[in-house]
Design a protein that fits this description.
The chain is an alpha+beta fold and about 130 residues long. The chain has 5 helices and 3 strands. β2 and β3 form a beta hairpin. Bound molecules: FE2/S2 (inorganic) cluster.
């Protein structure tokens, strides 16, 4: 299995690792088959713009590269734009993933969706 240069670079020096304190929303997903877990936390301002995004991923190189790339892509987006982010957009930015590693990028798409849902649920409670 071959990883693209971009995946290797992103995996070797991932951006946005960690957790946001007092996050506006947090999404955590896992893949039962490989056992990998990804958590994405978001800081969202009053205009629904994502000011910051961080991730914690216990998973393979592709999952770490996908979370780094996905968080990097959504910073500056509105939550509606972030909801439209597809795993294939992340894969494209990573210059491809091996077929058996596509599910790793799906975790990033799902974690973002859950984090936005969490944010919306918290907001309606206020
Ligand atoms: Fe499951 Fe990568 S092998 S997330």
């Amino acid at each position: 299995m071959e990883y693209s240069k971009k995946v290797m670079e992103t995996f070797a020096s991932p951006k946005h690792v960690g957790t946001i304190e007092n996050a506006s929303g947090v999404g955590k997903v896992g893949n039962p088959t490989c056992g990998d877990i990804m958590e994405i936390s978001l800081l969202i301002d009053d205009n629904e713009v994502i000011k910051d995004a961080k991730f914690k991923t216990f998973g393979c190189a592709a999952a770490i590269a996908s979370s780094s790339m996905a968080t990097d892509m959504i910073i500056g987006m509105t939550v509606d734009q972030a909801l439209k982010l597809k795993n294939k957009d992340v894969v494209e930015k990573l210059e491809g993933l091996p077929p058996q590693k596509i599910h790793c990028s799906v975790l990033a798409e799902e974690a973002i969706k859950l984090a936005v849902e969490d944010y919306r649920a918290k907001k309606t409670k206020k």
